[in-house]
Design brief:
mainly alpha, 19 helices, elongated, ATP-binding, kinase, ARM-like
């Protein structure tokens, strides 16, 4: 009430946010803090030019959302909050340090399907792509933005086909830039999988995207989630194009069939990885030429091994 009575006075908003922040460590205060997100974002929007207030508000929202995730509470922030956050992104789009924090906040917000849908409605995707293009070197920003893209692209109500299509070159550039950074590569592979599911690729994209995903698998063979999502992305590409299937077989860095074998052996205790590998092989054998090659490589033997290893899956 104190903050709402004096929206126009920056000092009141700053003091209010500081006072709310003092309750963060008190677990019993969490249910009340949950109800303050709109007040905090409105203070940020009203005093958009004050970087200090933006940082304080963003830090407090991060604390509240972190506690929510810890307690298994999904906070579905409404469209007005999503609009406020977008407003802040646009106003401070050149401040790399603050954007890094803000993109982490957006990633946490987008974990909720409702909040992700609200971010999509307010039109945040072009802004995310612009941030990625400008700060391709920043691993924290790239990780967060790709995670947000994944959340927005897998939304069932997606009406942003054209906007999402423009995400492919930027997401591919992120993966290329951070191939050796497993955390960022994992996030980028997930985003590429979502874009493939949404049909955002054209004929000329299948082969280079498949080659890039294979390279990510080779560079990060022990990261189970990356391997799983990378294989699911490849399966989506192969389903759409024989050229993607051939790219997996005849990759310049070595046979994709050997890579499939190696990944299975590395992740014998990961049913999710085995399932993704099977899905990829299932899509590949839809093409006669590819199936003949896989037979010549004795892939039935691997499939029998998988069946024995996971008899109840």
């Amino acid at each position: 009430e104190f903050m709402q009575a004096s929206w126009d006075i920056e000092e009141v908003q700053a003091k209010g946010i500081q006072h709310l922040a003092s309750f963060v460590k008190d677990k019993s205060a969490f249910p009340y803090l949950q109800t303050c997100t709109e007040v905090i974002t409105l203070a940020m929007r009203t005093h958009i030019d004050s970087l200090d207030l933006q940082v304080q508000g963003c830090t407090l929202l991060l604390e509240i959302l972190s506690q929510a995730l810890e307690q298994g509470v999904m906070m579905a922030l409404d469209e007005s909050v999503a609009g406020c956050l977008l407003h802040t992104v646009r106003k401070h789009s050149e401040n790399e340090e603050f954007l890094s924090m803000l993109c982490t906040l957006l990633m946490m917000v987008s974990a909720s399907e409702v909040a992700a849908e609200n971010l999509r409605k307010v039109g945040i995707i072009p802004d995310l792509l612009s941030i990625l293009s400008r700060f391709l070197h920043n691993d924290k920003i790239c990780f967060s933005c790709c995670a947000v893209l994944w959340s927005l692209a897998v939304s069932e109500n997606n009406a942003d086909q054209a906007v999402l299509a423009s995400a492919l070159p930027v997401t591919s550039a992120v993966l290329q830039e951070h191939l050796q950074n497993g955390v960022v590569a994992e996030s980028a592979c997930s985003a590429l999988w979502a874009l493939a599911l949404q049909g955002c690729l054209t004929d000329s994209d299948y082969e280079p995207t498949a080659a890039l995903l294979l390279e990510a698998l080779r560079m990060n063979p022990k990261r189970a989630v990356l391997v799983k999502n990378g294989c699911l992305a490849l399966a989506s590409l192969v389903r759409l194009s024989e050229s993607a299937a051939l790219a997996v077989l005849l990759d310049s860095r070595g046979s994709g069939v050997e890579l499939i074998r190696d990944e299975y052996r590395l992740h014998l205790d990961e049913p999710g990885v085995a399932e993704a590998l099977c899905l990829l092989m299932n899509e590949m054998v839809q093409y006669d030429e590819v199936m003949l090659y896989m037979r010549s490589q004795k892939m039935e033997k691997l499939l029998c091994e998988i069946k024995l290893q996971f008899p109840f899956s």
